[in-house]
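To illustrate the input format used throughout this study, we show a single complete record. The first block contains the structure-token representation of the backbone; no residue identities are included at this stage. The design step must infer an amino acid for every position from geometry alone.
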């Protein structure tokens, strides 16, 4: 199955480079491009891509607002790509529902892999971003959120899956850890997101960390 991708970036040269990398990748088709968030949203609604590769800083409607609109309507997955790894952008993008966050310094092979992972329902974070998030939680610099009502509605298995998401495990790793198949894992992840009213597994990971839902040793 071919993964359809829309590339949104306000720099023409960068946009062209990204389109060339992804366009030459097996199993990926670039179906459109956009130079600002408003255009990205319109194009996504018209072209129905599987993944939108979204820049953060763009004129008019920025990437964060565009991501929030796309994910709220469930139109596609959003993979944020930017030159900035500041906490404010990371948290804003992930809370807007982005399925992943990469820096523009990412290598071509990793970018292609990330697009495929996001299209498959996985979450992707650049190593630099992951370290920042872990450090922030470890140091207690993030304000803890109020536990959502749905947290108490999770079954024991769903809570285990949420803990695995908080630990950054992929579907395959969750399956191995809990001794269940990947299809079953996907079902549980979907139920967890629905019960907690979340837009992405990365948001679930943040919620798990903020509320102390951890894997038992």
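Output of the design step:
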């Amino acid at each position: 199955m071919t993964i359809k991708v829309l590339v949104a970036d306000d720099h023409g040269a960068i946009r062209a480079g990204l389109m060339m990398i992804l366009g030459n990748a097996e199993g990926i088709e670039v179906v459109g491009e956009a130079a600002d968030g408003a255009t990205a949203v319109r194009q996504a609604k018209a072209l129905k891509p599987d993944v939108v590769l979204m820049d953060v800083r763009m004129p008019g409607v920025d990437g964060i607002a565009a991501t929030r609109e796309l994910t709220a309507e469930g139109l596609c997955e959003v993979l944020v790509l930017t030159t900035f790894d500041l906490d404010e952008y990371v948290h804003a993008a992930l809370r807007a529902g982005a399925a992943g966050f990469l820096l523009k310094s990412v290598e071509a092979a990793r970018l292609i892999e990330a697009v495929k992972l996001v299209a498959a329902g996985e979450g992707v974070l650049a190593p630099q971003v992951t370290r920042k998030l872990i450090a922030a939680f470890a140091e207690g610099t993030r304000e803890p959120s109020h536990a959502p009502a749905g947290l108490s509605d999770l079954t024991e298995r769903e809570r285990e899956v949420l803990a695995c998401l908080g630990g950054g495990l992929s579907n395959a790793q969750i399956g191995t850890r809990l001794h269940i198949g990947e299809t079953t894992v996907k079902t549980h992840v979907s139920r967890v997101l629905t019960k907690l009213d979340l837009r992405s597994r990365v948001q679930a990971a943040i919620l798990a960390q903020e509320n102390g839902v951890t894997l038992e040793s």
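Structural context for interpreting the output: The first strand starts at residue 3 and ends at 8. The two ends are 38 Å apart (CA to CA).
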